[in-house]
Specification:
heterodimer, A: alpha+beta, 3-stranded antiparallel β-sheet, 64% helix, 12% strand, B: mainly alpha, elongated
């Protein structure tokens, strides 16, 4: 395994949980699958379509997202929105993400270079 | 709607739970069309765009597994170690035991040595394959139904004793040498006191006295060499490939002549055979010889396999 592959694996591990956090933030404003994918990519969260679509359904089943069909446009689209439960979950996740950043900063400052 | 997307949807939805199928179909179709539209707006033709989008979504079976939250592994980390341990435990003794039993049964049934040994080995292999299949099947089902195993948590008390430099204990060596010494002592003793008497009350040797000219001293020499091997093994503390080689050579040096003598009816004393009416009747002598040959082959084979496994485990 080359060092590029190793780096890719570690980055993947690091990014894995952030797609959920990013989706919950982005869906404070309701959106459908592909539009969300483009918004996330635009904000520096590249995510595969075959990961995002099933993920949205799973978050909906867990009650973190609510959905509504919009049939007014050319094709029927399912719009997802972060639920109240999703919002409180998101706050916990963001707190933890901040805590990780704080701990990292503390560790970096505490270690002599 | 073009047919590639239809086929992709059909392939994906096939393994998605039925109640959610229609809804996923509508949503996924809309998403695919969104993606194609985005690309054709950038100047691509529809056919190429469709191919690219579907390629990006990837294998339908994998996408369906993600929708259904299904695991793409036969046995996952929750069950793997339990599966491996049970499989190794069963494979370590069940096939050999069943194989030897079947070989012996076969040997008492006819006088075909090759057939009996072959039947024993074939059965052992079949039993091994069956064990591997059924154990794996049960664990694959456990994995899919998420049944908790409720195994006790691991504790430090389960750590194995560190035998790495004492694979061969003094008890093993003493027992082996004791047994070999008994066999060596028995060979001359049976010549003079076999506890079998001829018609006039004299002693009747069990083994053919004619063998003293060469074969019995030869077998004693092999057994003495085997005692030397046991001592060398104890010195080394564990199996090594040279010890394994010497072990196989000595095993063969003992087993091959014994088998040959048995098959040519030269091992047992003819007067001893004549003393026992049962042995002289019909095929009984041949049958007894066949059983003895099969036992010898199976024990020799088992010893070779066993020492090979122990040696292989010591590789660093």
């Amino acid at each position: 395994m080359g060092s590029d592959d190793i780096l890719r694996t570690h980055l993947q591990e690091l990014r894995r949980g952030t797609v959920v956090v990013a989706s919950l933030i982005a869906l404070r404003r309701p959106d459908y699958g592909y539009a969300l994918l483009q918004r996330l990519t635009g904000h520096g969260f590249p995510v595969d379509a075959n990961t995002l679509y099933p993920l949205l359904r799973r978050l909906e089943e867990q009650g973190l997202l609510t959905s509504e069909w919009n049939t007014e446009e050319s094709r029927p689209r399912k719009f997802y929105r972060t639920s109240d439960q999703g919002e409180s979950m998101l706050r916990r996740l963001l707190d933890d993400l901040a805590a990780v950043q704080t701990s990292l900063t503390g560790l970096i400052e505490g270690v002599d270079r | 709607m073009t047919s590639l997307t239809d086929r992709y949807l059909a392939a994906t939805l096939r393994s998605v739970p039925a109640p959610r199928r229609a809804e996923i179909a509508t949503e996924l179709r809309a998403s695919i069309e969104d993606m194609i539209e985005d690309r054709t707006a950038g100047g691509q033709d529809t056919t190429t765009a469709e191919r690219e989008v579907l390629t990006e979504l990837g294998n339908p079976a994998q996408l369906a597994a993600r929708y259904a939250d299904r695991r793409l592994q036969l046995i996952g980390p929750t069950y793997y170690l339990a599966w491996q341990r049970l499989l190794m435990l069963l494979l370590s003794f069940v096939p050999a035991t069943v194989g030897i039993l079947v070989g012996l049964l076969e040997a008492t049934d006819g006088d075909q040595v090759g057939g009996a040994v072959g039947a024993g080995i074939t059965t052992a292999l079949q039993v091994a394959v069956q064990i591997a299949f059924w154990v794996t099947l049960v664990f694959a089902i456990l994995e899919r139904t998420n049944i908790p195993l409720n195994l006790p948590d691991w504790t430090v008390d389960q750590l194995p004793e560190n035998h790495s430099h004492r694979q061969i204990t003094i008890t093993d060596t003493a027992a082996a040498i004791g047994f070999l010494a008994l066999v060596i002592a028995y060979l001359p003793i049976q010549q003079f006191r076999s506890f079998v008497t001829d018609g006039t009350g004299g002693n009747l040797p069990i083994l053919d006295p004619a063998l003293w000219s060469f074969w019995l001293p030869y077998l004693i020499a092999v057994l003495v060499a085997t005692i030397g091997l046991e001592i060398a093994k104890h010195r080394a503390g564990q199996w090594t490939w040279p010890l394994f080689g010497a072990n196989v050579l000595l095993d063969l040096a003992f087993a091959v002549p014994v088998i040959w003598l048995l098959l040519t009816d030269r091992l047992l004393n003819p007067e001893f055979v004549a003393r026992f009416e049962w042995l002289g009747r019909g095929d009984n002598l041949d049958r007894a010889a066949t059983v003895a040959v099969v036992v010898t082959i199976l024990i020799t084979g088992w010893d070779a396999v066993d020492s090979a496994i122990k040696t292989y485990r010591n590789r660093h």
